[in-house]
Specification:
mainly alpha; Arc Repressor Mutant, subunit A; 3-stranded antiparallel beta sheet; 5 helices
Length: 121
Amino acid sequence: MENEETICRGSCSENLSAVEDAIYVIGGKWKLKIIIVLQEFGNVRFNELQRTISGISARVLSNELKDLELNGFVKRIVHSEQTPVLVEYISTDYSKTLKPVIMSLSEWGKNHKQNIKADAF
């Protein structure tokens, strides 16, 4: 019995650590929104991203894109042969591994909203 409890505690600690790591990488107000937009629209220019995600400032968007690029979720494509230089952002194959997580979160969010509305009235 004691051995099973130790295993469960280790597993719980491992799961908590993994969730903490995931939230650190994709958490916050904007990162998942950026990933979703890039997955839905494909190649997107900076200003188009900013227009699509209402409320995000250029500075915050720039910082979030840098973080997402460092973590392998976004690729920055520079078309230097054009004048002015064209910069686009695209989601990577790695970011597409988040699709099931995003879909689950979306479904949970819809259900939660329904539950709150049902309880409120």
